[in-house]
Amino acid sequence: MAKEKQLLRAYGDRRDDGMVQLSFTFPIPLSERAKEAALQFVKKMGFADVKVHSAEAVADHFTFFIVYARSTLAIDFAEIDVPELVVQKMDFDQVNRVIEKQIGRKLVVFGACTGTDTHTVGIDAILNMKGFAGDYGLERYPGFDAYNLGSQVPNEDLIRKAIAKSADAILVSQVVTQRDVHKDNSRQFIEAAKAAGIHGKVLLLLGGPRVDHKLATELGFDAGFGPGTKPSDVANYVVHSVLRKQGKESGSTHYQGEPG
Amino acid sequence: MAKEKQLLRAYGDRRDDGMVQLSFTFPIPLSERAKEAALQFVKKMGFADVKVHSAEAVADHFTFFIVYARSTLAIDFAEIDVPELVVQKMDFDQVNRVIEKQIGRKLVVFGACTGTDTHTVGIDAILNMKGFAGDYGLERYPGFDAYNLGSQVPNEDLIRKAIAKSADAILVSQVVTQRDVHKDNSRQFIEAAKAAGIHGKVLLLLGGPRVDHKLATELGFDAGFGPGTKPSDVANYVVHSVLRKQGKESGSTHYQGEPG
Amino acid sequence: MAGLFIDDAQIAEARRLAHEITNPIFELIDRNTTVSTERTVLRLFGLNGAGAGGVPLVNLMVDKLHSAGVLNRGAAYWYGRALQMGAASPLDAVERLTTLSAADLGPLSPEVEGNLRAEVRAEARAAVGELRRRISEREALKAEFPMSPTPHKYVIVATGNIYDDVDQARAAAQAGADVIAVIRSTAQSLLDYVPHGATTEGYGGTYATQENFRIMREALDEESRKLRRYIQLTNYSSGLCMAEIAFCAAYEKLDMLLNDAMYGILFRDINMRRTFIDQYFSRRICALAGIIINTGEDNYITTADAYDSAHTVIASQFINESFAKRAGLQDEQLGLGHSYEIDPARPETLLLELSQAMLVRRCFPDAPLKYMPPTKHKETDIFFSHAYDVMADLVAVWTRQGIQLLGMMTEAMHTPLLSDRYVALKSAAYIHRAARGIDGEFTVNPDGKIAQRAREVFGKAMELLGECHGDGIVAAIGRGRFGDVKRSETGGKGLEGVVEKAPDYFNPFLEILEA
Amino acid sequence: MAGLFIDDAQIAEARRLAHEITNPIFELIDRNTTVSTERTVLRLFGLNGAGAGGVPLVNLMVDKLHSAGVLNRGAAYWYGRALQMGAASPLDAVERLTTLSAADLGPLSPEVEGNLRAEVRAEARAAVGELRRRISEREALKAEFPMSPTPHKYVIVATGNIYDDVDQARAAAQAGADVIAVIRSTAQSLLDYVPHGATTEGYGGTYATQENFRIMREALDEESRKLRRYIQLTNYSSGLCMAEIAFCAAYEKLDMLLNDAMYGILFRDINMRRTFIDQYFSRRICALAGIIINTGEDNYITTADAYDSAHTVIASQFINESFAKRAGLQDEQLGLGHSYEIDPARPETLLLELSQAMLVRRCFPDAPLKYMPPTKHKETDIFFSHAYDVMADLVAVWTRQGIQLLGMMTEAMHTPLLSDRYVALKSAAYIHRAARGIDGEFTVNPDGKIAQRAREVFGKAMELLGECHGDGIVAAIGRGRFGDVKRSETGGKGLEGVVEKAPDYFNPFLEILEA
Ligand code: B12
Ligand code: B12
Ligand SMILES: Cc1ncc(COP(=O)(O)O)c(C=O)c1O
Ligand SMILES: Cc1ncc(COP(=O)(O)O)c(C=O)c1O
């Protein structure tokens, strides 16, 4: 059955006026020609009613533009898919109960900020007692044994130590993303995991402010977690995944907050 | 001779990285689907590497997005034309001297903010003694007889009074532009000018923050002046135009700051 | 606001001067009425329909009386006459009156006359009672859902379409707005009538109509309940219909009104007499309805320079206050206007702005005050404009402004987008939260630049009050003392609507409101 | 900064405690040297080339000496030995030394030994003389083109490519920047060598190399002349090569360096002993070269909570100051770090931030101080982030910070775009202009929240200093007292590069610098 179209346009101060604000820099001096070039640039993107409101010389050879224009494009919102939620997200107690009842042992997780990245605040937020935004970290869950190796950890070290404790999941944090260094390092992690024979066996999670599930799975991880992730999101993911692995839960059920 | 191409791309933090910042609102609640729709929207504009950095519920049914993305578009700067400047802009004294020597009488100009618009600051800046940004207003030029009728002036009144004093130029200011009220009122002015038989005879100038030369000429004015206009720009324009009308200057010479 | 080292005695003297400045204007007000004042009387009786072509019934009736030259006895009197002729309803009354010939408008016997007045007075009392009842509903809602702490964050909606305005007002409330202003269509102040019904087309704003007021207040009542925080609504009681709009607003339970004794004169070229007379009745209604007025001194420094003309704002506030107090308004209803408008290219503008805002606070300690953001020097660089606005947020919370209009980063471009308001509200909430109480942390140094500037500005304001006192406010306006705009007593729009009262002029509402 | 009501005696006591806290560390420093300290000695002698595969000559030489177990006599000694063996140039010296077998490294006669030292000392004096001459060129340029008033607006460039960095640094200078920092590539602090030559690839920043320093300083000298305003340059003297980078910076006439006695330990997991020893020599060089150091206490409150751990910043500043003073740095070279990092969701954060910044000013009245903008709680909502930064601009000018890092509206996303810097610079210029002198306008109320909070934070800082004094700084770091990060004395990177000095350890530069 074809879905009914649900056309979505930008809203400036009335429905469907298409108003969008843009700003950008051209590496040329400020001039009338520069302004005209900015106007043409935005028109070329398909905007109508382009107003180059501001053009400032940010330096001898750079001009910064602020533009408002109307986009004539529409997005069919009905076409935008996200997985349906069928299972409620479990809270702290529920997670621990499920682990105790259905798994019967503690789940072991290892985490670190690997490579040359020193940003520990993100991985600490997920693993340490304190947690994040009022949500306890995995260390605090009786159902988890959580090891946080800190930052600047070589991928190989993390994998070796995780194997030594038969980890169920490895958590890799990547915060610095300039020139896609996080992707390079993540690929290197996956290579090392494959070499160690744990790829496809141990759950591999990637997280960080520029990470999303799509990117992570493309890179070879099982799941990706972006900004605002709560420890309980990770706890839910790990528990459900282990249950699925053990055949105790079907892969077609989805739960709230599941990366996807 | 074909000009050499001079491709221009947006500069974020290195040449040709194409970085552009956008912000816009969709009239839907915040959700993962909404974010995905925003991403698709910006992709559809032809952007690559789209990052929906911020998505905030500005209200129950509105989500505001902040996006950075790379535009793959380039503008050929060599193709952007602006008229060549051949005459230097005249200063206060030069303007007065040219009027005295080459025209031999005072030029009469009438101005007002017409229709229901009450914004006088712009037209005052052009006409009153004080002027704008350290540039004297036309009232102060010995070569001009300037009449400022203020704001909320019916177009017909302005035209009638200007005719009574055989004005050389009429200056119309339009500041409120919502729903294109300035265009409607400007068209009405041109109708009235035609009816009074002065269109094509008396110089008709339109000015205001959303006015440019192109718009003004489309509407039937002789010239248009936008934000930041100085009284001396207007003085130069009027003097050159009168000289051209009198055959004392060729229409193919252009001067600095000439609207076009 | 402690400090600033201006004597209480000097401030009392400013007040005394202002009172004497308004004395002659009150003689004018006593002696005259206007078409719009009389239309308001009829609206108070319940006439609110419109005839063919949308002309409001009150205009039909008052125009008729005016052209017949009998408006000087008061519309209430003629309304009584129509009732006495057996009019079944206000509408019927209009029809009867507008069909009467001039001859039919002759005098009655004293007894009949007396009965008529008694009857009309009774009806007026009932109407006022009903109005008070409606206002008490508003007050109950306010009591149930208390407002946020001050400064109340005030934003405008200006789509031109009341239904779009509602969407945006709700969104703004959800984003943290405390006060919603529906900006009027640009031409409305020059209309000598109040348009009728819901409207969906306007330039630069939406028509102020009683029905639009109702629609918006209803939406905001709903939103207030949902958010458990009372959201105020304001509109404009300015132009040629000050009192009529005040009535519509009172009846529809608005919370505030832009209402200034001189704005129309200066910025809309409305006749001086007309405005002075109209503002009085409009303010009497605001006083009754517990409406906070917002005055417009901030406008002076969009045409005149904000640094050079800072004192004109102070002088005018004392005058506006006098007009307001004499119309029965209380201190807590005085949203005296001022603003953060000094050219940011100057040095030490934060000190200057703090000085000015503290001075206003010092002069009017119990008034809520209405603080406007920068507008004139706003740039199309939205990032800079936003930073500039943020400093006004700081001054507002520092000087305990009651009502703060939030600056919009796109001020120099267009009326605000939905997201502009969100951006402004979010940042203002942060600044207010971060700086609340800062005034209690510091003592102003008596010899600092802030204190010195305040003394200088106050001194100049006293001089200007002295000039207005000596030569009259009319002469001062004639010299362009306020906002650099010159106006004459008989110039401008609407003088033809001013009518000298007959000795037996009758206005039962004024009797009640002045009692 | 008047007020805040903390006794001078208490502040003196904090200073005394800090001095005693660093006492045992200075024993450690006296007894030991490190590979990087020794490499610096060689660099001072003019060794700055690289061998095959880009390995710096100084590394080749020092590694050789280290593995031969003779580094404990000092690289200068061996450098002398090579000269004495007839080395024609420093390069030649390296080659000679690195080809020597362990047996060739045996002792000389006392006389030869004495001559050797005298010769090397003479060469060291010449090298220091040349360095001083270079520095005096920088000072002359500064005198010719005076800097803008403080706070000096400090922005970073971080393209990874030195030539792109130059473009951006020039643009930033033109837009009003006073200090340009070239951020290093993320991994550099863990490298136990300083890369060689101009570099065009780096992650999150550009490699700090002597050639990159030269290229950038040359561009900024040019820009300074063009703008007629001296533009300062800074880089990072942290990690495993603190002193080497200090030398490169001094030689290339940089103006400032990020240099902290404990940052590497806490945030880069560099060994404690290694860092303490390295920082000393690096600071001796800074002292000589008139380089302002910037310490890193601001980092503590990106990992720990800025409200709860405010006192750790103050305590650490006293300790960093003691380390600095004992290395010969003057007050005007102490850019002690602190920042505007309290969670903006809290109430009264402006009062808290003012309190903290005033407290730092109170404790270190003659230091320029280095004030960091909010970073941790920055949002991807760039408009909010910009407003948030603006408040830090205000606190910076209010509390007369010498050096202010400007917040970037895209902080939570990426290293700054060119336009981000422009936006920050334009707004900061406005805030500085608008608020300059505000500290002279007010007196802090002794019982207000600002004063109380300052007393509370200072009190806790004293307690922490007490703990460090009682148990030692090593133990305090072990307990995670700074930045919630725990480190042990023998953990972390680089301990293998620490060498106990032999009784006849020789370092002529230290002799000069300590004289
Ligand atoms: C704090 C901080 C630091 C601290 C780090 C202290 C520490 N021990 O962590 C210090 C000051 C030391 C620092 C240094 C540097 N930093 Co830094 N830093 C930041 C800052 C301000 C905040 C990061 C943070 O703590 N966020 C809070 C946490 C809770 O959020 P998060 O990391 O996103 O984590 C959440 C999710 O992403 C997710 N998550 C994260 N990891 C994982 C992993 C898994 C498995 C899962 C499931 C979830 C998950 O869950 C967390 C909770 O929701 C950011 C700017 C900003 N505001 O974002 C810059 C920032 C990240 N730093 C940056 C840079 C460049 C550096 C330096 C390289 C610069 C320099 N040369 O000085 C250095 C060196 C660091 C290095 N080599 O890694 C850049 C990175 C640019 C980019 N996109 O590449 C940023 C964005 C600043 C900027 N705009 O330039 N930094
Ligand atoms: C000052 C001001 C007012 C003052 C006007 C006082 C007065 N007597 O002029 C007051 C407070 C009264 C006012 C009222 C209103 N205003 Co107003 N106002 C402004 C403000 C803040 C500044 C305008 C200004 O003075 N600019 C300075 C002058 C020097 O610039 P300028 O007009 O562009 O003129 C220059 C050039 O354009 C050119 N120029 C202009 N005219 C001409 C003519 C000729 C022939 C030539 C050659 C050149 C020329 O030369 C000038 C010098 O360079 C702007 C916001 C802003 N910052 O731009 C809003 C703004 C213009 N106002 C606006 C609105 C909506 C109104 C109201 C309708 C709102 C309301 N209901 O309250 C009312 C009613 C006014 C009406 N009906 O016209 C909107 C217009 C939105 C739009 N694009 O349609 C703006 C943009 C604010 C906003 N963002 O909402 N306003
Ligand atoms: C007191 C007052 N009335 C009215 C207005 C609005 O103008 P108008 O209603 O004339 O368009 C303003 C301007 O902001 C004002 O300050
Ligand atoms: C003192 C100090 N050194 C160095 C750095 C930079 O870190 P690294 O050079 O280790 O990447 C910082 C962080 O801003 C710092 O504060």
What is the secondary structure topology, with strand pairs?
The complex is a heterotetramer, with 2 copies of chain A (260 residues) and 2 copies of chain C (515 residues).
Chain A: E1 7-8, E2 19-26, H1 32-44, E3 47-59, E4 62-71, E5 75-76, H2 92-103, E6 107-114, H3 121-127, E7 144-153, H4 155-164, E8 169-173, H5 181-195, E9 203-207, H6 213-219, E10 223-225, H7 231-245
Chain C: H1 8-31, E1 32-34, H2 35-44, H3 57-67, H4 75-84, H5 90-99, H6 110-144, E2 152-157, H7 162-174, E3 179-182, H8 210-227, E4 232-236, H9 242-251, E5 256-258, H10 263-268, H11 272-289, E6 292-294, H12 300-303, H13 310-325, E7 334-335, E8 337-339, H14 349-363, E9 370-372, H15 382-398, E10 403-405, H16 418-435, E11 442-444, H17 449-471, H18 473-478, E12 498-500, H19 508-514
Parallel strand pairs in C: 2-3, 2-10, 3-4, 4-5, 5-6, 6-7, 8-9, 9-10
Antiparallel strand pairs in C: 1-12
The structure holds cobalamin (2 copies) and pyridoxal-5'-phosphate (2 copies).
Q: Can you describe what's shown?
A:
- The complex is a heterotetramer, with two copies of chain A (260 residues) and two copies of chain C (515 residues).
- By secondary structure, chain A is α/β, with parallel strands linked by helices.
- Chain A has seven helices and ten strands.
- A five-stranded parallel β-sheet of chain A has the order 7-6-8-9-10, with helices on both faces.
- In chain A, helix 2 runs parallel beside helix 7.
- The radius of gyration of chain A is 24 Å and the shape is elongated.
- Chain A starts with 6 loop residues before the first strand and ends in a 15-residue tail after the last helix.
- Chain C is α/β, with parallel strands linked by helices and 515 residues long.
- Chain C has a nine-stranded parallel β-sheet with strand order 7-6-5-4-3-2-10-9-8.
- In chain C, strand 3 (179-182), helix 8 (210-227) and strand 4 (232-236) form a beta-alpha-beta unit.
- In chain C, helix 2 (35-44) crosses helix 3, helix 4 (75-84) crosses helix 5 and helix 14 (349-363) packs across helix 17.
- The model of chain C has no long low-confidence stretch (mean pLDDT 95).
- Chains in contact: A-B, A-C, A-D, B-C, B-D, C-D.
- Residues 184, 186, 189, 236, 238-239, 258, 260, 263, 268, 295-296, 299 of chain D line the site of one pyridoxal-5'-phosphate.
